[in-house]
Backbone:
C-alpha cells in the first residue's frame, strides 16, 4: 500500500503516514474498511493516520444516489475487474452503503488517531478551508517548531495484517492475516 513521508522544513522531524490497513469489526461480526487521512495527533505528537469520515447526510446521499441511478462508470469498471455481474455488484454496493450509514448513525465518538486512539487530533485536509492537500500542508505549522511539512518520499508499505477496530474506532488487540 502507498505510504508517504512528510519532512519538517525547520527541524529534523519526519513522519511516515499511510501504512495502516484497518477494518471496523461490527456487531454481528461483519467488517467495513476504515477510511483515514493524515492528521496531527496531539497525544502522539506526530503526523499520523486518523479516522476520517463525513456526516450522516453524506452517507445518505451516497446511498440515495446508488438507489436512484444504479452503478456509475467507475463502479461498472470495478465490477468488470472483479468479474462480478453488475446486478450482483449493485446489490453488494447497496448493502455496503446501508451498513456504512447504520455505522455512521450510531457512531458516538469523534474521529480517532489510529495509533493511540486519541480524539485530540487535527485533520490536515479540511475541505471547507483548503482546495488541495498541498495547500492544507502549507497551512499547518509543526507545533514543536513552527515549521511546515513537505511531502518528502513515497514508498510502499506491507502491513503485516489488518488492524481491527471497534465501531468507535478503538483498536482491538487481535490481528488477522491479509486475505
Ligand atoms: Zn519541525
Ligand atoms: Zn495518537
Residues:
Amino acid at each position: 500500500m502507498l505510504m508517504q513521508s512528510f519532512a519538517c522544513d525547520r527541524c529534523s522531524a519526519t513522519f511516515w503516514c499511510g501504512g495502516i490497513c484497518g477494518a471496523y469489526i461490527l456487531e454481528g461480526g461483519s467488517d467495513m474498511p476504515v477510511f483515514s487521512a493524515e492528521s496531527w495527533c496531539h497525544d502522539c505528537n506526530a503526523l499520523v493516520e486518523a479516522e476520517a469520515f463525513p456526516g450522516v447526510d453524506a452517507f445518505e446521499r451516497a446511498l440515495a444516489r446508488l438507489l436512484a441511478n444504479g452503478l456509475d462508470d467507475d463502479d461498472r469498471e470495478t465490477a468488470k475487474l472483479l468479474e462480478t455481474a453488475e446486478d450482483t455488484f449493485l446489490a453488494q454496493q447497496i448493502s455496503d452503503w446501508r451498513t456504512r450509514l447504520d455505522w455512521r448513525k450510531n457512531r458516538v465518538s469523534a474521529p480517532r488517531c489510529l495509533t493511540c486512539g486519541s480524539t485530540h487530533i487535527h485533520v490536515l485536509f479540511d475541505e471547507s478551508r483548503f482546495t488541495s492537500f498541498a495547500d492544507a500542508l502549507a497551512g499547518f505549522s509543526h507545533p514543536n517548531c513552527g515549521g511546515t511539512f513537505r511531502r518528502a518520499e513515497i514508498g510502499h508499505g506491507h502491513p503485516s495484517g489488518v488492524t481491527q477496530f471497534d465501531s468507535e474506532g478503538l483498536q482491538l488487540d487481535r490481528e488477522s492475516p491479509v486475505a
